[in-house]
Specification:
By secondary structure, the chain is an alpha/beta fold. 27% of the residues lie in helices and 22% in strands. The chain contains 12 helices and 15 strands. The strands form 2 sheets. The chain has a 13-stranded mixed sheet. Strands 9-14 form a two-stranded antiparallel sheet. The chain binds iron/sulfur cluster (2 copies). The site of one iron/sulfur cluster has 11 residues, from loops.
């Protein structure tokens, strides 16, 4: 039976999104990495292990996700994974664009990582490659197949925007038989490269997805994919009139760690020096005020404060100037599974 649930925020489950470098072989048009804010350095293994230790308390309830840039460009990723295992993290995922550098699949064993998570932003080669770069569609699909054939569990991430929302009905046939266990749909956030004024044609087309487009397509397509036995997760985005707004920065436990030591609790703050924590001498300490924490407290009729500040085009107001709905925290997810 297909079941849909909203994944409630919890302080008892921690997610650590650890960007071990910002270097990447691709130049995706909507890349959220902002080297001016996140640094350009590749963390040495000694720093990676020290920072992992900083997060290791009660590690069995913590999900660790290695990201970049492209994390497989880091030659010490296998050693970082091995060390994280010894620290007892509850799960370990490697996010990748599919290029799988340094022959990574032969240097890590399937029981050392929970998932390799691939990214694809088009249901067809032409769309994906326009967004992510020539050859990236075929490379990603080949990478998924190779990882599966070697016994790794895999997942796939699709970032929906106005550049690809028209073809999401083509996702189920693409995904069927691919061998992935989990499928994540994200919605474009205007940060990093997609927030920059000099974005080209796609930017001018307005990257954000209309409310009606989102609600008419994403839940339906997610359900079709869940019917294959794949767990599908997508952001709630638009709250209904009876649904409560909560800011994950206050009620959940997420850490977005960057190579310059900045640690954010909110991904929408990452384009600004608003991080609430910083790794100093390998210890996690509070950052100076003002920071994102001060924003989390603000209670506005539109829901998420950062959404209103950086991407207000998804809001709509009635004749009296009242918002017609609230925008959910970008971290609030719907999950569909076939039990
Ligand atoms: S989105 Fe990911 S794969 Fe694309 S350029 Fe950015 S870091 Fe690289
Ligand atoms: S996205 Fe909005 S609601 Fe979510 S943590 Fe950030 S500021 Fe809070």
């Amino acid at each position: 039976m297909i079941r849909t649930k909203t994944v409630a925020f919890s302080k008892n489950s921690t997610n650590i999104f650890f960007h071990i470098l910002t270097k990447c072989n691709l130049k995706c048009r909507h890349c959220y990495i902002n080297p001016g804010q996140h640094g350009k350095n590749t963390l040495p293994l000694s720093v990676i292990t020290a920072w992992l230790e900083a997060f290791a308390r009660n590690s069995n309830s913590k999900n660790l996700i290695f990201l970049g840039g492209e994390p497989t460009l880091h030659p010490d990723l296998p050693a970082a994974v091995e060390y994280a295992r010894t620290l007892g993290f509850g799960s370990i995922t490697i996010d990748t664009n599919g290029y799988l550098f340094h022959d990574i699949l032969s240097k890590i064993k399937p029981d050392e990582v929970d998932y390799f998570s691939f990214s694809l932003d088009g249901a067809i080669r032409e769309t994906n490659d326009r967004i992510r770069g020539e050859g990236s569609f075929d490379t990603c699909i080949a990478g998924i197949r190779q990882a599966n054939s070697m016994g790794f569990a895999t997942s796939l991430i699709f970032t929906a925007s106005s550049a690809n929302i028209h073809e999401v009905d083509r996702l189920p046939p693409l995904i069927k038989g691919l061998g992935i266990d989990r499928f994540f749909i994200q919605i474009i956030g205007l940060r990093g490269r997609s927030a920059k004024g000099k974005q080209t044609r796609i930017r001018r087309q307005k990257l954000q997805v209309e409310k009606s487009q989102w609600l008419n397509t994403i839940p339906r397509v997610a359900r079709r994919i869940a019917e294959f036995g794949i767990t599908v997760t997508y952001p709630k985005v638009f709250l209904g009139p009876t649904e409560n707004f909560e800011c994950a920065g206050l009620v959940a436990d997420n850490y977005f760690v960057f190579p310059n030591g900045r640690v954010y609790r909110c991904p929408l703050c990452e384009d600004f020096a608003l991080h609430s924590l910083i790794l100093k001498n390998n210890r996690l300490v509070p950052a100076e005020k003002l920071n994102e924490r001060d924003l989390f407290q603000l209670n506005i009729a539109e829901g998420c404060v950062m959404n209103k500040l950086i991407q207000p085009d998804n809001l709509s107001y009635d004749g009296a100037g009242e918002p017609e709905y609230k925008i959910a925290c970008c971290l609030l997810k719907e999950e569909i599974r076939n039990d």
